[in-house]
Amino acid sequence: MRNKQKMLLGVISVLILISLSACGGEKETIRIVEHEIINKNSHQTANAVRYSLDVLVKEEATEEELKALAEKIVEDFKKEEDFNALSIGFYDNAEDIGYGYTLGNIDYAPYGDWGRASEVGAGDYSKSEYSYSLNLDQ
Questions:
Q1: Are 33 and 61 in contact (CB under 8 A)?
Q2: How far, in Å, CA of 44 to CA of 84, rounded?
Q3: Are 63 and 30 in contact (CB under 8 A)?
Q4: DSSP of 59-120
Q5: pLDDT in tens, 17-75
Q6: What is the CB neighbour count within 10 angstroms for residue 103?
Q7: 3-state secondary structure (DSSP) of residue 15
Q8: How far apart are CA 131 and CA 121, in angstroms?
Q9: Contact (CB, 8 A) for 111 and 120
Q10: Residue 82 and residue 125: Cα distance in Å, rounded?
């Protein structure tokens, strides 16, 4: 009888551990929406290397999906260029490019502020933060 109780307690413990590990831990993956980088513009000064990108979003996207897309674009761009600040403008229609962001924009810069780009060296992202300005209330 005592062995059956120990075995039952062991099985219950394992089930509890399995259910706890299934509940937490892994972050939900957010899909990356279909997009195309239309323009890459350089805004270099003596003290800062800044870029802006015009990105056409080719399908409907949530705020979380645009943020995930921006983070992917930033990480990919870091592999190509050293920079102080990067601004990403999102559009849902290519004809609107250059006439105001239709879906909003996201800056990745020191303290989230494009104007403070010269406070770090190009390629030093230790103080870089995202600043979001999205208009999805269409």
A1: yes
A2: 10
A3: no
A4: S---HHHHHHHHHHHHHHHHHH---SEEEEEEESSGGGTTS--SSEEEEEEETT-GGGGGGS
A5: 444 444 555 557 889 999 999 999 999 999 999 999 999 999 999 999 999 999 999 99
A6: 22
A7: helix
A8: 19
A9: no
A10: 9
